[in-house]
Every structure is written in C-alpha cells, then in structure tokens.
User: Which sequence fits this backbone?
C-alpha cells in the first residue's frame, strides 16, 4: 500500500483543514453575508452592458453577432444638413429602438467586442434583478443610464501616448 | 434502570416512560448536535465560509428549518418498489441506532441495561443496519439503489471485522465484556503503578483506537468511505429513491449512529463517563457522567468529521484493500501483542 509514503500526506491534509478552521474562527471567512455586506465587484467585471447612444449608428452588427438574439434594434435614415455650404446633405442613421433582453443575454460580450463605433461597454453593475421577467428588457434609456457606471479606462503605459486612440465615451 | 440513586421507587410504567424519553434524547441530541456543530459549522469554517447564519442566531434554528422542509415533502414510491420492504427499511436502520444506545453507561448507576456481554451486544446490533440498507437497496427497484446497497453491505461487512478485532484488545486488557466494568477498569487502572489519571486504554491500545476510528468512519459511510452513497457515480446509492420523512429517518440514523459510535469509542478508549481525580463510585457521577460522556463523544466525533471534511473518496477496490490487507492484519497483531503483554504483566 505504500503507507510510509501516504501517511505524511494524510497528516499534512489534516493540517490544512485545521489551519483553515482556525483562520476562519479568528480572522473571519473569505465569504461575505451578501445582502447585508456588499463587495465591490472588480473594475472590469461583466455585470451589465451599457449603451453610449451618440456613438451608435444602428449598423446592426451587434444584433447579428449576438448568439441568442437578445438585441433588438430599429432605426431610420435621415438627411443631415451639409457640413459646408453648397455641399450635399449627408445621409445619417438615427436610432429609434435599442433593447437588450437580459433574460436572454448570456453575457458573452461579443456585442461589446464587435461594435465598430465603441457604442457598447461593460459595466460592473450587477444588481438589476426584477420580479417580472419582462422587466429585464432594458430599453435605450435604461442602457444609457448604465453608462454612468462604466469605469474609466486604465492609464496607458508611459511612452505609449502616440499609439493612444481617442475613444469617445 | 436506575436513573439516579434517589430514594424514590418508580412504578414499571414510570420507568418505561423515562427510558423511552431518555432513549429518544440519547439518539436525537447527538444527531442534532453533530449536524449543527460539525456538518453545518465546522465544515463551513474548514472551507473558509460561515455556514447557515440566517435562521436564528448564528443559524442555530437551521435544523428546525431542515426538518420542516423534509416533513413537507411528498412521500414518493417508485412504481416497481416492494412497498413493504421499502417502507420498513429506514425503521430497521433506526432500530439499530436505538438498540446501540442501550449498552452505553453514562454513570455508575445511570445505564439502560448492564449485562455481562455488553460489548458483544453493541457490536451485534450495530450490524442490523446492514440489513436495513440492503432492504432499501433491494426494495427501491432502482439500479443505483441496488448497487449502493450492495456496496454498503460489502463495506459494512468488511469493516465490521477490524471494528470487532480492535475492541478485542480493550476486552483482553480489561478482562471483561461488560461495558460498565471496562469503564471501571480504566478508572481504577494504573500506569506503571501510578494511578493519577487511571488508565484510559487509548494509551496502551493506541493502535486499537486508530483502527477503531477508521473502522467506525467506514461503518458510518462517512467520507472518505462513502462509496455506497457516492453521488458522482451512483446518485446517492440506496438513498436515491427516498424522499421526505423516510430520507430524514435515514439521515437521523446516520448521524445518531455517528454520535453513539463516538460515545462507544470514548467509553472503550477514553474512560467513558469517568474523569480523573474523583472516586468512580461517587453519586456525583450520575449527574455529571452524562455530560462528561457527551464531551468525550464530541471530541471523538470531531476527529471523525475532521477526517470527513479533509479526505476525498476512496475507490471501491482501495476500500476493500485497506480493510483486508491493512486493518485486519494490524488488528490481529494488536490482539496478539495485547494478549502476550497481558500474560507477562
């Protein structure tokens, strides 16, 4: 059985659990009593998806890439006045409806990654449960409100200023 | 039974009522204490969490919540189950638990029965639970239950042997099968002529104590010996088809037996209800004896649950190897050594 090899390991294992027992009794546990004590989620936690409405062009890429089709977008085209006098009126897309059904969303983040105009962001906010399933459909206004909870980007390394992209928020 | 040396003659029915109540207390109290103290709390602390905290202060009423939940559940039967056997199985297991309490002395006069073959009776009735578990496994008409029941039978029979053989060392040293006299032999014993703490047999029978601990761990099907209920292989073995009240009975049986086996280990190896420095015939022991016994029981069951929360499950063949290739030879050596030393000294 190789008892001479196994017995020291067995005793070591007992030591690990006993040490944890003493540490929990004296210094407290790693867990917190959630509804009363709240831990701040990590800065980049994937809590909820926020929408920066001005950046969205209703290009539908996010809706098409979404694996469970939980993004609903409606938009229309309109003619914006020309930039210079005498120019042609520009064609622009206006966003009428942008809904994410968080009852369907599986928080994969593909929409955030695929967005070419930096309109979608991850927010670490996670407490948005609802008594009714239908209320988990967050509309444009609600998604824009989440924008306030999106943390700022981390500082770039020194010397990399030249490579920085101007990311509109 | 004389509960206390009082100058009151009790009628037979009064004695019976007291016996029944004390028997219930002796079964349910250890079960509840062990589940709350060790299964809920100590296990959580060993995993660096707090355990139940909401029901009552520090979750102390969680047990009531659990029992209430089990009582509310529907009493389900599998379609092909052998109903009589299926219904009777938990009661057979629990009967073994209740019978085990009988032999435990809790003071010089506080005992249920005081017979000369107490050890024999204890080890015999502890095997009744095997029948109950086999009944549960067979009566459920489920393949998982059947495999679990057969595994349990194989395991309990295999570990019955080292259990009995480990106690044999104690019996040889005390020179009696009477549990009460084993306690007295430890209380009045001497270590090389020094009788300060009596002679708790854990000192001379340390190997026997270790074998006994491992064997009761397996008898109780606690991890790392929980192959009969291995949830990742056979759902929960013979418990698979049980719900509600009947599952609760199995559960109570398991933890009450854990408490009573711990108390047996405390009686055989740690001196039972006796604490050093007092006269073992003192009437005071009828009062504090049960408390001392509970204290020692908690000590032994701490070890059992500590092992439970530390080690992962064995494989089925490793389990049998440990019993037949290690524990049985070791306990035989222990018996021979004890016998030789008994003759010499």
Assistant:
């Amino acid at each position: 059985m190789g008892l001479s090899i196994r017995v020291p390991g067995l005793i070591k294992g007992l030591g690990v659990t006993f040490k944890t027992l003493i540490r929990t009794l004296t210094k407290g546990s790693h867990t917190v009593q959630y509804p009363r004590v709240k831990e701040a989620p990590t800065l980049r936690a994937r809590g909820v998806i926020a929408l920066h409405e001005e950046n969205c062009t209703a290009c539908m890429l996010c809706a098409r890439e979404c694996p469970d089709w939980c993004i609903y977008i409606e938009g229309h085209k309109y003619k914006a006045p020309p930039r210079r006098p005498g120019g042609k009126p520009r064609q622009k897309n206006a966003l009428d409806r942008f809904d994410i059904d968080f009852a369907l969303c599986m928080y994969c983040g593909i929409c955030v990654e695929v967005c070419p105009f930096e309109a979608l962001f991850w927010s670490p906010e996670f407490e948005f449960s609802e008594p009714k399933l239908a209320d988990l459909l967050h509309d444009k206004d609600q998604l824009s409100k989440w924008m306030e909870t999106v943390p700022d980007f981390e500082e770039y390394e020194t010397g990399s200023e030249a490579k920085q992209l101007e990311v509109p928020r | 039974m004389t509960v206390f040396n009082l100058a009151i003659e009790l009628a037979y029915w009064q004695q019976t009522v007291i016996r029944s109540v004390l028997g219930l207390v002796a079964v349910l109290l250890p079960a509840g204490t062990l589940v709350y103290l060790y299964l809920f709390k100590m296990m959580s602390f060993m995993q660096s969490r707090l355990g139940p905290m909401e029901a009552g202060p520090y979750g102390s009423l969680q047990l009531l919540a659990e029992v209430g939940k089990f009582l509310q559940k529907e009493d389900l039967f599998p379609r092909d189950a052998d109903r009589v056997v299926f219904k009777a199985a938990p009661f057979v297991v629990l009967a073994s638990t209740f019978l085990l309490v009988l032999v435990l002395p809790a003071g010089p006069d506080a005992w249920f029965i005081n017979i000369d073959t107490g050890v024999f009776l204890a080890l015999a009735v502890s095997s009744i639970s095997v029948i109950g578990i086999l009944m549960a496994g067979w009566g459920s008409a489920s393949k998982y239950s059947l495999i679990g029941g057969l595994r349990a039978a194989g395991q309990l029979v295999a570990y019955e042997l080292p259990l009995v053989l480990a106690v044999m060392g104690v019996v040889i040293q005390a020179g009696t099968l009477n549990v009460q006299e084993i306690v007295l032999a430890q209380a009045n014993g001497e270590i090389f002529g020094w009788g300060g703490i009596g002679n708790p047999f854990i000192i001379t029978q340390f190997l026997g104590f270790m074998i006994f601990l491992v064997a009761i761990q397996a008898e109780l099907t606690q991890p790392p010996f929980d192959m009969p209920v291995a949830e990742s292989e056979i759902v929960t073995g013979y418990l698979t088809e049980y719900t509600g009240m009947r599952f609760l009975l199995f559960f109570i049986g398991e933890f009450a037996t854990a408490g009573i086996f711990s108390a047996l280990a405390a009686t055989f190896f740690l001196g039972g209800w006796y604490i050093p420095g007092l006269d073992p015939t003192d009437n005071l022991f009828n009062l504090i004896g049960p408390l001392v016994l509970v204290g020692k029981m908690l000590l032994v069951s701490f070890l059992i649950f500590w092992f439970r929360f530390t080690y992962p499950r064995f494989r089925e063949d490793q389990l049998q190897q440990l019993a037949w290739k290690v524990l049985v030879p070791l306990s035989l050596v222990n018996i021979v050594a004890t016998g030789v030393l008994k003759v010499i000294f």
Summary: Chain A touches chain B through 17 residues (CB under 8 Å). The beta strands of chain A are 48-51, 71-80, 90-101, 120-123, 137-138. The radius of gyration of chain A is 25 Å.
